[in-house]
């Protein structure tokens, strides 16, 4: 590729479509998109996607950038001209990446952007525009590959200082390859800096998601996070990320480590209670009384167990269940917060917190309705909260 020759994406796309006996992409009708939406910058959700992506959201505060996007949207024929202007090309290229490849979201976020319009580019147009990205970034990618492979050689020779320097250099050249971030995580793992390993591998997954990385790379990053948590003795978190790895790419290693971790967690609980038989007996007695509906007695036994072993999140989870049944919501919330403090990835604990908040919401709506029986919002809120509370839940942890 002649680096001095201007790249004209629209000319390239039109030429490719003409070779396929297609009409002008701006006028072409398609089953999957209206005629005006066959260019990434004509995306009706462009500003929602720009705001959602961490790489571009701050640019919305730049009036020049916002006006640039609006100008291109209003007249797609100016795209090639603006694309080749040095002041604009870096942000246009990144915006293309967000629109074309940033479709999978982030590992640390569950929220999905609320799109006002669900139309998308036809698949063949997506491929053509990705080819534009590859063309403009080709030299950078080649250089990044060269530096990354040299870093791999240094890593295998256990020259971690040199490897770290070169991986960071590769990221500066081309920051869209998750393998560099993941390999930095591997360096921290080998040097027993497990917390930093976790941080780097999470960043690797973020970058991978943003740029549509292959699932087996994402799975490998999750696996390394799990191994780091295991080294730190956090077996529950290790299990969580081994499961994430297996969900991405069902490898034998991920499944083996997941099974081993489940066994370790089980044995850890069994071994502890084997040497603390009294605490185990109290817990079992509490479970038995809870199932009989004796919530006061169950809470008393859980309290006795906690007095002997205060680091078991399940005991606080179960006592909070008793307090909910007894409508002692403040005490229930206190135990729920303690449960989550001990184990942040305890799904039952978060479900428990949601139920407590539902009860508190119902009580607030009920009080509002009592004070003003004509308030339809209060009545409807009370009825909806009551309906949610009456759903069947079973958060008691019997292990």
TrEMBL record:
Residue ranges of TPR repeats: 144-177, 219-252, 313-346
SMART domains: TPR
InterPro entries: TPR-like_helical_dom_sf, TPR_rpt
SUPFAM superfamilies per the UniProt record, alphabetical: TPR-like
Keywords associated with the record: Repeat, TPR repeat
Name of the featured protein: Uncharacterized protein
Organism: Orchesella dallaii
Signal peptide from the UniProt entry: none
Pfam families: TPR_12 (PF13424), TPR_19 (PF14559)
Entry superkingdom: Eukaryota
């Amino acid at each position: 590729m002649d680096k001095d020759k201007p790249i004209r994406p629209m000319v390239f796309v039109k030429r490719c479509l003409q070779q396929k006996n297609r009409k002008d992409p701006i006028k072409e009708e398609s089953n999957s998109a209206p005629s005006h939406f066959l260019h990434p910058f004509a995306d009706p959700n462009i500003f929602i996607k720009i705001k959602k992506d961490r790489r571009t959201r701050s640019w919305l505060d730049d009036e020049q950038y916002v006006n640039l996007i609006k100008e291109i949207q209003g007249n797609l024929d100016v795209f090639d001209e603006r694309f080749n202007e040095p002041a604009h090309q870096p942000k246009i290229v990144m915006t293309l990446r967000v629109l074309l490849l940033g479709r999978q979201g982030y590992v640390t976020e569950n929220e999905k952007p609320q799109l006002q319009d669900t139309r998308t580019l036809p698949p063949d147009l997506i491929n053509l525009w990705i080819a534009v990205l590859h063309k403009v970034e080709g030299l950078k990618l080649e250089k990044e590959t060269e530096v990354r492979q040299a870093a791999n050689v240094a890593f295998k020779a256990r020259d971690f200082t040199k490897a770290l320097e070169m991986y960071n250099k590769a990221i500066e050249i081309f920051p869209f390859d998750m393998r560099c971030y993941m390999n930095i995580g591997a360096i921290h793992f080998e040097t027993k800096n497990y917390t930093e390993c976790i941080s780097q591998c999470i960043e690797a997954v973020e970058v991978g998601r943003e740029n549509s990385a292959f699932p087996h790379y994402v799975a490998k990053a999750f696996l390394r996070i799990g191994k780091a948590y295991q080294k730190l003795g956090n077996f529950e978190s290790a299990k969580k990320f081994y499961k994430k790895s297996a969900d991405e790419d069902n490898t034998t290693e991920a499944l083996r480590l997941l099974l081993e971790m489940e066994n370790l967690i089980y044995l850890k609980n069994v071994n502890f209670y084997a040497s603390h038989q009294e605490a185990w007996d109290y817990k079992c007695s509490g479970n038995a009384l809870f199932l009989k509906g004796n919530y006061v007695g169950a809470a008393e036994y859980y309290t006795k167990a906690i007095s002997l072993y205060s680091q078991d999140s399940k005991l606080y989870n179960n006592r909070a269940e008793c307090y909910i049944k007894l409508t002692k919501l403040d005490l229930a919330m206190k135990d729920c917060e303690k449960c989550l403090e001990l184990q942040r990835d305890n799904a039952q604990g978060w479900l428990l917190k949601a139920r407590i908040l539902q009860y508190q919401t119902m009580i607030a709506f009920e009080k509002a309705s009592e004070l003003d029986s004509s308030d339809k919002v209060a009545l409807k809120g009370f009825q909806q909260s009551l309906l949610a509370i009456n759903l069947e839940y079973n958060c008691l942890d019997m292990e």
